[in-house]
Queue: 2 jobs
Job 1
Amino acid sequence: MSEHRRFTSSSVLRGHPDKLCDRISDALVDAHLTVDTRARIRAEAAAAGQVIFVTTDAELEGEVDVNGVVRRTLLETGYNRQDLDPERCTILTQSSVMTPPWARERQDADEQPAGEQTTVFGYACAETPELMPLPIRVAQQIAGRLDELVGTAKLPGLAPDGSIQVTVEYVDDQPARIDAVVLQVVHRGSQSDLRSAVESLVLGPLFDGQAVRPDRQTRIVVNAEGSSGVAGPGRNAGHTGRKQAADTYGGAARHGDGALSGKDPSRLDRCAAYAARHAAANVVAAGLATECELMLSYAIGEAEPVTVYARTFGRGRLPNERLSAIVREQFDFRPAVIAKRFNLWTLPRQRGGRFYRLLASGGQVGRPDLDLPWERPDMVEALQRAAD
Amino acid sequence: MAVEIGTRELTIRAAPAPGRVRLSVGGLLRRPEREATVETALARIPNVEQVRASSLTGNVLIVFDPGAWTTSDLVEAAARELRYTVRTADESPAEPLSPTEADARRQRAVRVVWDKVPGRARIAVAGLRSRKDVEASVARVVGAIDGVVEASASALTGNVLVRFDPARWTADRLAATCADALADLDRLASHVRTDVKQRLNGTAAVPGQDWHHQPAETVIDELQVDPDAGLDLAAVASRRATHGLNRMPEPVEPSLLKTVLDQVVNAPTALLLAGAAVSVATGGVFDAALIVGVIVVNAGVGATTERSGQRAIATLRRTTAIRARVRRDGAEDAVDAEELVPGDVIQLLPGDPVPADARVISAHRLQVEESALTGESRPVEKWEQVVSADAPLGDRRSMVFRGTTVVGGRASAVVVETGATTQIGALHLLAAEAEAPPTPMERDLDTIGKGLAIGATAVCGAILGVGILRGFPLRYGLEIAVSLGVAAIPEGLPTLATSVLAFASGRMRKKGTLIRTLGAAEALGSVTVVCADKTGTLTENRMAARELFTASGPVAITGPALSPSGSFELHGKAIDPNLDRAVRSSLWVGALCSDAEVEGLRDGEMILDGSATEGSIVIAAIKGGLDPDTLRAAHPRIDLRDRSDGRRHMITVHRGEHGLLAMLKGAPDEVLTMCSRVDLANGVTALDDELQTKFADHNAQMANRAMRVLALAHRSLPAEYTEDDLVSGYTLSGLIGLVDPVRPAAPAAIKALHRAGIRTVMITGDQALTATAVARELGLSRRGQLNVLEAGDLSALDGEALRGLVRDVNIFARVAPEMKLAVVRAIQANGEVAAMTGDGVNDAPALRAADVGVAMGQRGSELARGLADVVLSTDDFAQMVDAVEEGRLVRANVQRVLHYLLSTNASEIWVVAGAVAFGLPSPLTPLQLLWLNLVTDLAPGLALALEPRDPELMGQPPRDPKEKIVPGPMLRRILAESAAIAGGALGVYAIGISRYGIGPAAQSMAFASLLGSQLLHVGWARAGERPALTGSHGRKNPYLPGAMGLSVALQGAALFFPPLRAALGGAPLALADVGIALAGAALPSIAIELSRFLGRHEPRALPAPADSPAPAVASERTPRGAQSDDARLPSGEAASDSLPVSRHASVAPGGAR
């Protein structure tokens, strides 16, 4: 008797109010690190109606045009006068800027201890080539394709705001079919245009040649309740860090309680989450497990994590204890080392000022399109050697 | 709210484009109050993007999403929303009136009521009655008719009173002209009112027609002018008759009578007059005369002071007339700008002030500086192309506006609006709408006056009643009542309060600060927030080259913006620009590749011809020791590639000693691609990737510091050069960064204001980036944290939200002129006292609405100066600090005077009431009381009014704006201390009676004792709440000894000079009696000193980090680093004069964390 279960994950378009705030926050991180690769920055945004509230807390040499970054981000996200006027909306910024203090010298040292106590999780599974759970992967891809349609003639009237929910049916823990795809987007135009565009431009090309794909029973629901006439913060207020499941594994694994967006690489919420994903993905890629969740906990004042705990849900070759020990031995989880290993300080400048903002939509992990350092299976051999 | 409209029909007027439709709405025409209702209703329709209803046309323009609606569906929807029916266009509405009929109506509408005196007439205007809203506009329109001296309109009577030149007008002819000018009263009203309303709300901004949206040819057609020949003189004359002179509506000065009456019409004066009447009735004509004399003197002093202030400002307002180059009858001529009429074709050249609102018909690189109107400090390029209809004022590139200045290029334009209908004229009207509230002290003094009058009347009545019950004769009872009335009213108070203000304004005027209303001096002292316009107030509103980035690094250029002095500093060390090849060649390029010329030097500042940008680079070259004229003479320019659309650089070719040189200046991204080499300090190297990145990065850096950046490059050219040679092969010399520099004194001034607990808020039309850079330099925020609100449209925020925001925000960026007013109002709504400084015409409404409007006098606009309460003649923001200190001193001194006068007067009441209570006759005659109040009190009071500055005045947070001028504790102290003084006098009176029996001798002893103790009390009034002898206060009052001496001499005369003594009803005193009286005077003072010494509480702890300005806020975040200078607040004994500072609960939004 085979076991059937359904699992659902959601993602949102890049102009969804919460995601928009994430994007603004990360665009500010990009801007600060582009001006000064050793800048410290924490940026948060909230949006409601035509008002965007931004706080930045920065230490850097140089200046950043905060409002300019915000307005450009709105424009780039696809907003226009109709929903959220990038030119004329009100922006309230609260910014503290300090010239870098003593902390800067220590930041580079490998032994730089954790500045906060935090627990983060990384996860990987063998459901997709990206080692991501299928539901969130599909939801992200649908969102990404819709994002590309915003502002094009292919689907006029599509605003950059909406959410996508994907339900996958698992048989014996293997994804077997797509059970439902539910879209709620802001579209000003006819319902049938939208539906046919979703089918022909989004779902069709996406599932073409895929093993797991919608079948006759799959429910495809597009704007079941009609469309809201308003997109963006005019519809719903937004805030940085409220879409963490969509940023990570769609609920298939645990995630830490700190937001990823709006933080410079010295912040463990961000860099340790990447490191945990890197380790988990390498464990799966090395064939040590088909599913792995890694927990990292840090204590203030210590560089090494106090907890490194890998578990494989009974789907690994090694006991969890042994695997945890191997992972701890093979990966250096000290905060400063992580940031250096992944080039987290310098990537924005290397990539022309556009790095973190791209992570803000479409997921911060499992992104083959971005060539992310924490997605590279570069520890596979080391892990295999250690396991044998 | 229900829409109640006559014909409930909608007619499609036009559907100019998909997504736009213009509908005629029945009942909207000439009903401006319905605009908003219609707009709100239609905006509810989904997918409608914009709705603009106009009561001028009766139409509404709807912009909607053509994907969601067809035009006809939308009209149906609109009809449903308004509960209207749709009428098809062919059923046209009633025929408009034929011209003659309209004329006839017009004639009936205006008639002469009275014209008995030549040059004067009263003209009835139909439709004026009970239209308070059009009153002012009617007066302005009539007043603007040539030959009319003065016009005042009254909505009460429906008449206009006109004074005119009888040689030019008869009353009837004038009435006919008025009829034309007022042809459409409703239109006039709606024009003014909707406009003002919309501007205040920040909705659809600008008045007048959409000239900017019309093609130039259409405008020319509409105005019936030949652009080559201009108007003919007949047309000019007829248009002047209709449109009047091109002159700004002038604020009306209050008449002398009104000024005097303002001084006299108040409760205390009424009571004094009643007292005088009673005196006359009871035979005291001398008393009555004295009382009336007092009133006259008070009114005179007050009115004179007020008047002289008004006069001073009138002279300030007078400005030189501007000239306009106009083409008429085919010839070009320079005329007075007042002469312009719509349709005139004008020429604009650099340096010209724009004389009227005009539509550009042809332009060559026309650059106009519009900061006075829009607050945008960078010059705007203008052209003839049509601009979209809803463009905000600053984006109307096809228009030039009166009040702005041409800074570059040239153009011809056709005048479309003159006088009051220009943008700036509308602002004049707007400004007239915003009323300044009375200052707190004015209100308090008024309340005190009323309270005293009521209290004194009540006490008089009570005593009269008691007296009658005790069987005193009525006459005697009345006499006592008058005595008390006289005793209660501090006759000297109005004079002294006015004098305090007058002295303060006199002192300030000497330092170049002009106080226009006396209330303003005091209001300055209670200011809790200073809103400063950035451009021109905190910055110099000039361009200055501040940094030159070369391969060696960033070179700072110092010295004032327009001065030839200054140095070049690399890494903080001065360098010789001639020894550094890169710096030197940068300056060469700057001097040669430029159209700007230095015309001369005035007051140490260079006078420039040409654009501010180029000028500032030329000045940098001069600072570097180059002489541009010599350089240009040695290298004559032989070729020029100017900037153009799509080309953001400029190239000049020069002939030099060693061949041809090309100089290149322009946008860094463009210039960098044209360069292959870079100048070094001692040589040249290839522009490799690394250097390329270095320059590009630094360009971004400079831009982020709000600098305008230009790259400078050069190359040598072959004698036969090609176009290709001109666009490549350059050697990059450097990047030059230009800023509008911060005024040198401004940072210190802001620091001083912070020390005084006053928050500074910057309001600017500029971008947040520019404003933030300036704010950092100024130290605007004391916590290293800047809160910036960059609002495309503040009206998107509701009032509550804005009120919340203004507590915390340091910078309001990109604020439209009308929104400055909203910001000031929101600050005031939080219970703060706001000062607003500004210089532009766009600041005027906010200046007017602020508790204290401060205008910059030197370069400030005429309108701003005319409306401000305070004018700073030197444009120096630092003067603001001095003005605030002076304002605080005013309050402190008024309090000293009040303390003194109220306690001496109260002691007199205690004495009279006490005596009556014991069944004794009053120890003081009414004349003695008047003598005490006028003679004893006046000289010391005057000295107190002149008390000098307390060094701690600016070390305290501002007082609670709600605190009364006589707060509770002070009032209790006054009552207690006056009771002590009265106790002494009554004691002496008792001893006197025991020695001499009831009669003049005992009275005289009491009188003498009271005289003495009142004089002594000066010391305690001076000290405020501190002990007078043991308390430390370093300041000396130079006027005090003289005043005291004079008073003592006069008292001596009253006691010992027989004729005077007799006149006052006193008796000679024996030496022993004098001793007793003096003891009676000294004992209360000793008691007061003791009580103050013992009751002295430790100086109120000043709020530790007086970081949070006055009543407002401050988020709870710990200040990281950025130790403020507030730590230096005085902590010792010092404290304050008297004012307990209560603070509002602080509200800390604290940020979204």
Job 2
Amino acid sequence: MLILVLVAVFAVTMVLGVPVAFCLGLGGLAFIWLSGVVPIAVLPTLMFSGMDSFPLLAIPFFVIAGDVMQRCGILPKLIAFANSLVGHLRGGLAYVVIVTSMLFAGVTGVALAECAAIGSMLAPSMVRQGYPGGFTSAVIAGSAVMGPIIPPSVAMLVFAYVYGGGISVGKLFLMGIVPGVLIGLTMMAFVAVQARRRNFPVSGERFAVRRVLKALRGAVLGLVVPVIIIGGILGGVFTPTEAGAVAALYGVLVGRFVLRTLTLSDLRKSLLVGAKTSAVIYLLLGTSNVVSWILVRNQVPKVLAQWSLDFTTSAQVFMLVAIAVLFVLGLALEAVPIMIMLIPILAPAAAAYKIDPHHLGLIVVMTVQTALISPPVALSLYIVASIVKAPMKDANRAIWPFMLVVIGITVAMAMWPAVPLWIPRRFGF
Amino acid sequence: MRALVRRVTQALEALTLVGMSVVAVTVVVEVILRYGFGSSLIFTEELTRYTMVWVAFLGGVVALRDGAHVATGGLGDRFGPTVGRIASLTADGLALLFLLTLAWAGIQTLPNQRDQYTTTLNVSIFWFYLAIPVGAVLMALVIVGRRVGLVEAQPGDLPVDDL
């Protein structure tokens, strides 16, 4: 009964617009006060223990690394490389956006940062070349979804932490590669159809192997980043946290001594972005730790898992229901809070169906990415639409095909775990 | 008064930055020491973990100033300006209720932490738990300050401020 009060308080405060971290705290607080037996001291203690963790430090580091690399001029090199590969096609810039997003996804782990970076560099030229504003916003915001799916991924780190042990970050990262690339390829196929039907511009440049090789030389600086990160983690050279720190250091060294574009003020900004972004996630983790402690104490996840089992014994049906719930929440909420709130509930149920936690992680991370592009609350889409001054109405209409691609591939990955597992298996997982 | 408040929040931002730098540099140094010199710092893990709690609470204050926290905004506005205003006032009131309770509970638990020392740093855990009441009170002040127009967002030229 009191659990319902907790949920109601959380829902009402959230609708009122209280920051989600505080909503979770207020829900917990309501429970603590009404129950009368739980001492208030659990609030700060549980918050502290929810935030005090070495693996969690990977979050600020990967945010800093992505931000540094965006400031130090690696992105234009990746764009040039993508342009040499697909720029000559009809609708070239739209392909360039997708390929760049795929490559930059290996450097950054946050969709919104990727979207803002690529949007500010490519969106204005797309509109200048005559692409509709709505389509421009949709292709950039849609392909930025690959950021947290192709490793590294801040969302996967959050999943690994909230799941609470037993997750190999290396394996989870590897699982993102195939679905991420599939999303990119499917989006490119959609662009191909659109380009012919809507007569998108052609640049007139010809494809030349020499140009590709030349651009590759510049892009290598960025392309090696995921290799360092994943290689380092899998090879046992460093922990995911240290991998994040090393990636950030790499960005600073490249920016300072190779490309010579990174200033001290850039570095200061990157550190601040890392601190602020992680502060928001940390506070969410802190207060959600209070709520999940209460839920577990009252056996809520266990009961829900049993209900779910009574409803269906099929792991596939469970996965589909989970995808539907996560997607619906994403219409109004953002990706990371959804994960932090729902993983404690989904995890025991998934375990009851004997679902590999890494598979669950992949599907959760993929599904919640739609939160950034699903109207009415679609942050990624807002960012690009405001850059190109496209009416939200057009962007909202143009995003649907891209969202369908993401959902379709997510469902496919949920039904056929062997596909995303293909690469991890090569590495002995 | 406004200028003073702005300077104070900028000082908090600087402190957050210092904390973040300490965490980042310590881990980088740790990795370099391990592979370059075959040794390591024993206090890396504790120092960084606990410092990050401070960074989270101070960064939370800065993020609140800049409106970077995750929230569903403006739902009340759809029912007219009056409803919107009431909703946002209520939201601030509830956030204050949570933060002040957290601060109060945080202070209550502080005396117990006095005698608990961290294993490798040999510092009382008190100094890290202190981040909770301090951060909560500062966040409460930011909410009040925003309401009366004393605190304003300074997002700077950051490309994106939240997830």
